[in-house]
Write a structure and sequence with these properties.
Helix content: over 70%
Number of domains: 1
Radius of gyration: 19 Å
Pfam family, one: ABC2_membrane
Organism: Nonomuraea polychroma
Transmembrane segments: 24-45, 57-81, 102-130, 136-158, 226-244
GO cellular component, one term: ATP-binding cassette (ABC) transporter complex
Largest sheet: none
Number of strands: 0
Main location: membrane
Number of helices: 12
Distance between the termini: 16 Å
Oligomer: single chain
Order of helices and strands: HHHHHHHHHHHH
Length: 253
């Protein structure tokens, strides 16, 4: 790794963030779909779903936050694809900069943009009646889980961003990720699901992440869910990072 890695990444991060500031509608658009889903489920379906003593907006919010991230990372793949097609990477290769800093700038831009979208969604949830007595440490734990989740999915997004043949192909990978929370405990308790679907829902990563965030918000014991959630996030992050960096090296070699 170049000794100038951090400086190079900071400069390139500034470049990527300037694109975001000139296109604020990107962040707004990313937040609109999760907010629309939250409005629909709370006010249309919420009354028919039994979440016991927990208000449905409180029950639903963790899953909506994950959907926000899953929809937001499509823009990372799109921006990478456009840079690849525009020849920006070839131009950077001719300059004395750390090669990996190009990818890290895109990843950190995704993190910043998604965090802003998440804040917007939480603010709307508060207007809809979301309440939490969680303390600072619990909120920091939720933020940490969401940051890890965002980084993991962003490194997944890097792969199609580097390898896709079209703009549609670069962002289409995010659709299954957006759909995954529907097959988890995000919208309904898993014990209401039929056998095979229930088994899948209880053992896929989104359920443990949703349950950990929900328990942190409600000041309930998190049990093993938080460790399973962290294991999933870190495991996906490491595997995606290795694949993404190998793909990048092949592309620029």
């Amino acid at each position: 790794m170049s000794k100038h890695f951090f400086g190079d990444t900071a400069v390139l991060l500034g470049r990527s963030l300037s694109h975001i500031t000139r296109s604020v509608d990107t962040i707004v658009t990313t937040a609109i779909m999760p907010i629309a889903m939250m409005l629909m489920f709370v006010y249309v379906f919420g009354g028919a779903i039994n979440t016991e003593s927990v208000s449905y907006v409180n029950y639903l919010l963790p899953g909506i936050l994950l959907i926000t991230v899953a929809s937001g990372i499509a823009y990372t793949a799109f921006r990478l694809f456009m840079d690849m097609k525009g020849g920006i990477f070839e131009r950077f290769q001719s300059m004395p900069i750390a090669r990996s800093s190009v990818l890290w700038a895109h990843v950190l831009t995704s993190l910043v943009a998604n965090l802003i979208s998440l804040v917007v969604v939480v603010l709307v949830a508060l207007l809809m009646g979301f309440r939490s007595g969680a303390g600072v440490l619990a909120w920091l734990a939720v933020a940490g889980i969401l940051i890890l989740f965002t980084l993991a999915l962003t490194w997944i997004a890097v792969i199609p961003g580097l390898t896709a043949k079209s703009v549609d192909g670069a962002s289409a990978f995010s659709y299954p990720l957006i759909f995954l929370p529907f097959l988890s405990s995000a919208f309904v308790p898993t014990d209401t699901m039929p056998g095979p679907l229930r088994v899948f829902a209880e053992h896929q990563p989104v359920t443990s992440i949703v349950n950990a965030i929900r328990n942190l918000f409600s000041q309930q014991p998190v049990g093993t869910d938080i460790w399973i959630a962290l294991a999933w996030c870190v495991g996906i992050l490491i595997v995606a990072y290795v694949f993404a960096m190998n793909t990048y090296r092949r592309k620029i070699s």
